[in-house]
Amino acid sequence: MADDDDNVLRIDDLKGELQKLHERLGREDIRHHQIAARLLTARLEAGISRAELAERCGFSEAQIEAWELGAEVLYASDLAELCNALDVSPDDLVGFRREH
Q: Would you write out the chain's pLDDT as a tens digit for each of its 100 residues?
């Protein structure tokens, strides 16, 4: 399990990178990277490593890393496995907000 201080640093670094992306990229690319950030945050909040998440959902550790870094698009067909492994809803990872 990763050190909590390392997790906070990674999330803060990622937020800074996302802000830079907002300034450079179009809306679709920003959304893609927001999903990547939510995936990383969900894993860190679950307190598990990439290797453990990969084992839980049947993907390679390299694939998990690629999704978390925004290097590859996370497709809906893979979303369910990740959500089950992280015990989060697809709405949480995709960023849908429900109106009450």
A: 445 555 555 666 766 766 665 566 555 566 778 889 999 999 999 999 999 999 999 999 999 999 998 888 888 889 899 999 999 998 888 887 654 4
Q: Which domain holds residue 53?
A: 4-94
Residue 25: DSSP 8-state: S
0.85 exceeded by the pTM? no
Identify the helix (H) or strand (E) that includes residue 6: helix 4-24
Tell which phi-psi region holds residue 58, choosing left (phi > 0), alpha (psi between -120 and 50) or beta: left
Nearest CA-CA partner of 6 in 43, 38, 32: 43
Question: Which CATH number covers residue 51?
Answer: 1.10.260.40
Amino acid at 74: L
Residue 46 lies in a domain: yes
Is residue 68 included in any domain, yes or no?
yes
